[in-house]
Amino acid sequence: MNIQGKKVTLRALEPGDMEELRNYHNDPVIGNLVGGWSYPISSYQQMQWYERTIADDKNHRFAIHTEEDGFIGISTLTNIDVKNRSAHHGIIIGKKELRGHGYGRDTVMATMKFAFEELQLNRLDGDIAEHNVPSFNLYTEKCGWIEEGRIRRHIYRNNRYYDRVIVGILKEEYEELCKKNNYWNS
């Protein structure tokens, strides 16, 4: 089952997506913005990751797909905890020229809809490098997430330490956001 947003479709990752995903991962601009450890990876390493990923039911990774541009990025639900009904969410829009066109917002909204309405999760959390202002604004201003704290000087980029900003959203906050902005009915 694909997950349908208003502008994007979230679908299963396919082997044919791996070279483009590897290019995103190896892009120094993207590497500078993500919170995890970033280093160059080979095609072989990317395919090994894919083989491990497709069989993992505690972590879901979706290709972000548009009709016009095809595969443009990845949306994740990781560390899914069925007992506590929570997961971690992340997103990368890999095609720079497509940022700022509403694809990120639609991806986060579609991922939340799937997480809260289909998986019946109660909470999503994420983390953002403090210098990644566009992602912080996407989550907090457009998608209703709340800054819950910071881990000080946790991310090292360009010879400097940055805070890791912890954000989260509860199912009822998502439902209230949908009522307030009428997202799925507009």
Task: Present the secondary structure layout.
Blueprint (H helix, E strand, L loop, with lengths): L2 E2 L4 E4 L5 H9 L1 H6 L9 H11 L6 E7 L3 E12 L4 E8 L9 H16 L4 E7 L3 H10 L3 E12 L2 E11 H11 L5
Parallel strand pairs: 5-6
Antiparallel strand pairs: 1-2, 2-3, 3-4, 4-5, 6-8, 7-8
Helix pairs in contact: 1-3
SS elements, strand count: 8
CATH superfamily: Gcn5-related N-acetyltransferase (GNAT)
Structural class estimated from helices and strands: alpha+beta
Measured by DSSP, the beta-strand proportion falls in 25-35%
**How many domains is the backbone divided into?**
1
Which geometry do the CA atoms define? globular
Following the backbone from N to C, one meets helices and strands in this order, namely: EEHHHEEEHEHEEH
Fraction of helical residues: 25-40%
CATH architecture: 3-Layer(aba) Sandwich
| CATH topological fold name | Aminopeptidase
Q: Tally the helices.
A: 6
Distance between the termini: 23 Å
Sheet of most strands? 8 strands, mixed
If you had to describe this structure to a student in words, what would you say it looks like?
The chain has an eight-stranded mixed β-sheet with strand order 1-2-3-4-5-6-8-7, sandwiched between helices. Strand 3 and strand 4 form a beta hairpin. With 186 residues, it is α+β, with helices and mostly antiparallel strands. It has a single domain (3-185), classed as 3-Layer(aba) Sandwich (Aminopeptidase). The longest helix is centred in the middle third of the chain and has 16 residues, at 103-118. The radius of gyration is 16 Å and the shape is globular. The chain has helices at 18-26, 28-33, 43-53, 103-118, 133-142, 171-181, and strands spanning 3-4, 9-12, 60-66, 70-81, 86-93, 123-129, 146-157, 160-170.
